[in-house]
Design goal:
The complex is a heterodimer. By secondary structure, chain A is α+β, with helices and mostly antiparallel strands. Chain A is 52% helix and 8% strand. Chain A is built from 16 helices and 12 strands. In chain A, α1 crosses α2. Chain B is of the alpha/beta class. Chain B has 2 domains: 259 residues, 3-Layer(aba) Sandwich (Rossmann fold); 158 residues, 3-Layer(aba) Sandwich (Rossmann fold). In chain B, 46% of the residues lie in helices and 12% in strands. Chain B is built from 20 helices and 13 strands. Classes of the chains: A alpha+beta, B alpha/beta. Chains A and B meet through α1 of A and α4, α6 and α10 of B. Chain A: Belongs to the cytochrome P450 family.
């Protein structure tokens, strides 16, 4: 285990569980999801992460009322109004009131705790929401909603370079989206320079290998990965922490024309810059990849709309926004009640687990005509995706730029693009529903 | 040879192993029986040598919470009725995940597995014979290089379904293969420095106590063996009332060992059932757990706490039971027509085979199981002599199988062929020094 770089926030003491103990913990929770799924619990079925129509399950949860109480003990909402309110509710946060709890050592048959399935403290995905607000002070001036666009030219050139390498047939995830996200982040964060130099290529290659391994983290909070995947994730997070530490240290000594240097220039401290940077690698990359991939999948499923984007590539941004609404990259947002609250006819106890089903909630918001349909004309429609003040909101502006530029790179090059096989999604991926494979033909 | 026999701590699963354990013993082999401490009294009562390993399992606590979902999924008729070719990947993944999480990994708790491995490293068995869910035996054998075999107590529904699962997984891309049994065994073996191998699921070979017409052909090395009833851990005593022939047809009604030790039973409203059956011109012997409150019953019903099935069944004209493996096999061995009120797992498949073979009837859950319906079914079973003939054919098939004594030489040969080098790396230095 590498030592924890000092530039990152302190984490919980390293867990001392053995692989067998971790495996048993993950297996038991997976068992819960299947057992309750077999009894028809739609939230448990969602968490299984495969084999079900997620839109239908979301609708089923919504029909059960604004707050559905799953047999897992979780209060689940798929209602637009309730979701919007709960995402803003200051009485909900990411951790248990009074501090964190490691569920790994607990007897799950007594606690039934399925809120923090895999320890994600080192990945910084379960920080208190106040911490994300603090981290956004270094992020916002450089990679915030207003500022992230400044990196568009860099991202466009990185995505374009990757797209230009694609052959007549290629894979959406492996040959376009994943390497383009790696190239873009590598450039923006300053792991590689503006040109295609050898050092930069190596950094891109490492990121292309590392980012998909890290991406599992968003799913692993709620859905137990297979043990080898969980252990690989742990290694990947440790590697990312070292990478970020080295990067921030190097840019602190010798600033460059990159986002990390710009964040350091805020003077708010290396630790927070490193933390924000880690979040872009762990959450931002996966969100950008999922959004770009799902946008391409949705557009190719709607050839008329693909043709529109190909004619007017500036509409790639609209395609990304509609993808975020219709097929969000973070479908389930997990919260814990910090105090007892009554909402929508339910008493939510302090320490209760609350989950917002974002994709279903988005289809239930007022002011969207035909919300179940993917339609570029929905541009500007309300959406709860990547809101709520968690890590996903912090990384969202850059992820939007990256996803948009990948869609644009495809649309400007390949108007005749078509699927040459079925979409394969990652196993046990109820949060991201990550695309791992889609053969394409130019 | 040194032979380690193992079953997780549950009498119904251990009982079927006792005659073979004794056959090996009387053939001059050293035999040890490893299980959680809770089974030690039962092993000792069987006159065998117990090796308590690890802590007791908590499967009852787990299954109390998980049973509704587990049972709901497994009510799938294609599963119950043995049509694995119709089961899809979603069912197979669900079934494997649930059973691994809620059952296999529970009854093979880590401390039990680890102590069994430690014992095997020290004792060095040549052969491990394991009850088909007691994968700890396979792990201990694989780690220490012993030959190992599963000893079946029923038709091999588990392996039949698992093979179907493997066939459907094989064409999937590797990152989409989700096999919970394999994952669990992989990290369990990894704890002892060994890697997964398919034999850990199947054994090097399988010893099958089912008659040929109730056996699956699964392309696995198979040693058929005659089922020999063993009544333990209850004392086998011949009651005085059973020492003369009954004046009227005798019917045994029993929920078997499982009803005595767990809350699961197919026999609901036993008193209603017994009253209805007693309307027939029969003598009823009913096993009802001691302490169970029972209202006064008609004079032709004899309620007993328990009775050794091998003592009473030869005098019976029919048996009404819950479908369990031991009761089914005992009745089959004595050629008694069976009315099986099965509802879960292999019980349903075995009950349906009775119908197919003309040796009994299966009454599915629901209206068919009302007391009057059971009575009518039983009347039919007693009236139609073809059931007796069908049951006699199954008895013949069972008598055609070699007895445990006769099987021992084959086990010796197979052990010599499969005995290998240890594959695990001993974690403890004591074991390493040996």
């Amino acid at each position: 285990m590498p030592t924890t770089p000092q530039t990152l926030p302190p984490t919980a003491p390293t867990t001392t569980v053995t692989p067998s103990e971790l495996g048993r913990h993950l297996l038991t929770i997976r068992g819960f999801h299947f057992v309750l799924g077999a009894l028809g619990d739609p939230y448990a079925r969602l968490l299984r992460g495969e084999g079900d129509d997620t839109a239908a399950l979301g609708a089923e949860i919504r029909r059960a009322g604004p707050l559905f109480r799953s047999h897992l003990g979780t209060c689940v909402t798929a209602s637009g109004e309730a979701a919007a309110a709960l995402l803003r509710d200051p009485r909900l946060d990411t951790r248990h009131p009074g501090g964190d709890r490691a569920h790994l050592g607990e007897n799950l048959w007594e606690t039934w705790r399925t809120c923090h399935v895999t320890p994600m403290d080192d990945a910084l995905l379960t920080l208190p929401l106040a911490d994300y607000r603090r981290l956004d002070r270094v992020n916002r001036p450089v990679l915030g909603p207003v500022t992230a666009g400044a990196w568009r030219a860099d991202v466009r050139s990185a995505a374009g370079r990757v797209a230009d390498r694609a052959g007549e047939t290629f894979d959406l995830a492996a040959d376009l989206v994943r390497p383009a996200v790696a190239a873009a982040l590598s450039r923006v964060l300053g792991l590689s320079g503006p040109g295609p130099d050898e050092g930069g290529r190596a950094a891109e290659r490492e990121l292309a290998e590392l980012l998909p391994r890290l991406g599992v983290a968003l799913d692993a909070v709620l859905c137990p990965p297979r043990l080898p995947v969980a252990r690989d994730l742990e290694e990947a997070v440790a590697r990312a922490r070292v990478l970020v530490h080295d990067l921030v240290t190097a840019r602190a000594a010798e600033p460059g024309d990159d986002a990390v240097s710009a964040m350091l220039a805020t003077g708010l401290g290396e630790a927070d810059v490193a933390a924000a940077c880690l979040l872009h690698l762990v959450a931002g990359a996966e969100i950008a990849a999922a959004t770009a991939a799902d946008a391409v999948v949705a557009l190719l499923d709607h050839p008329g709309q693909w043709a529109v984007v190909c004619r007017s590539p500036e509409l790639a941004a609209d395609a990304v926004e509609e993808t975020l609404r219709w097929s969000p990259p973070v479908r389930l947002v997990s919260r814990t009640a910090q105090e007892p609250l009554a909402a929508y006819g339910q008493d939510i106890d302090a320490d209760a687990h609350v989950v917002i089903v974002v994709d279903a909630a988005n289809r239930d918001l007022a002011g969207v005509a035909d919300p179940d349909r993917f339609d570029l004309a929905h541009a500007g429609a309300p959406s709860l995706s990547l809101t709520g003040g968690g890590p996903e909101e912090l990384v969202a502006p850059l992820a939007r730029v990256v996803a948009t530029e990948i869609v644009r790179a495809a649309a400007t090059r390949w108007p005749g693009l078509r699927a040459d096989g079925a979409v394969v999604r990652r196993m046990r991926s109820p949060v991201v529903r990550a695309v791992v494979r889609l053969p394409l033909c130019r | 040879m040194r032979v380690l026999v193992t079953s997780f701590a549950m009498d119904a699963h251990f009982n079927g192993m006792v005659p073979l354990a004794w056959a090996l013993r009387t053939a001059g082999h050293e035999v040890r029986v490893a299980s959680q401490p809770a089974l030690t009294p039962s092993i000792a009562r069987a006159g065998l040598t117990a090796v308590p390993v690890g802590d007791d399992h908590q499967v009852e606590q787990v299954m109390t919470a998980a049973a509704p979902g587990v049972f709901a999924l497994h009510q799938n008729p294609d599963y119950l009725e043995g049509r694995p070719e119709l089961l899809d990947l979603d069912f197979l993944e669900s079934s494997t995940t649930m059973l691994t999480a809620m059952f296999y990994a529970q009854i093979n708790n880590d401390s039990m597995v680890d102590e069994m491995v430690a014992f095997s490293r020290w004792w060095r068995p040549d052969l491990v014979i394991w009850e088909p869910f007691t994968f700890a035996g396979a792990v201990a054998a694989h780690v220490t290089g012993a030959a190992h075999a599963r000893l079946l107590w029923g038709p091999d529904l588990f392996l039949q379904v698992y093979q179907r699962f493997q066939r459907l997984l094989a064409p999937q891309p590797p990152e989409l293969r989700d096999d919970a049994v394999r994952d669990w065994l992989t990290w369990t073996l990894g704890r002892h420095g060994a890697e997964f191998s398919p034999e850990v699921v199947t054994g090097h070979w399988t010893i099958d106590q089912m008659p040929a017409s109730v056996r699956f052909e699964l392309d696995q090395p198979l040693v058929p063996m005659r089922y020999i009833p063993y009544n333990g851990p209850l004392p086998a005593v011949v009651p005085s009332w059973s020492r003369t022939d009954p004046a009227r047809p005798r019917v045994c009604v029993t929920g078997g060992m499982t009803e005595r030790t767990t809350g699961f039973s197919g026999l609901d409203a036993v008193a209603d059932l017994l009253e209805a059956i007693a309307e027939l011109d029969v003598e009823v012997i009913a096993t009802v757990k001691a302490g169970e409150r029972m209202r006064p019953l008609p004079g032709n019903v004899r309620v007993v706490d328990s009775v050794p099935l091998h003592v009473v069944l030869p005098s019976c004209d029919a048996v009404v039971h819950h479908g369990g493996a031991g009761t089914w096999a005992s009745a089959a061995l004595y050629g008694v027509p069976q009315l099986a009120l099965a509802w879960q797992w292999d019980d349903v498949f075995r009950a349906l085979r009775l119908e197919k073979l003309g040796a009994g009837m299966y009454l599915p859950p629901g209206p068919a199981r009302q007391a009057s319906a059971v009575r009518d079914g039983l009347a039919h079973l007693l009236d139609d002599s073809s059931f007796r003939a069908g049951a006699a054919k199954i008895r013949e098939e069972m008598l055609d199988c070699p007895t445990p004594n006769e099987v021992v030489p084959a086990l010796e040969d197979l052990t010599a062929a499969h005995r290998g080098a240890p594959s695990g790396i001993p974690a403890g230095t004591a074991a390493a020094r040996r």
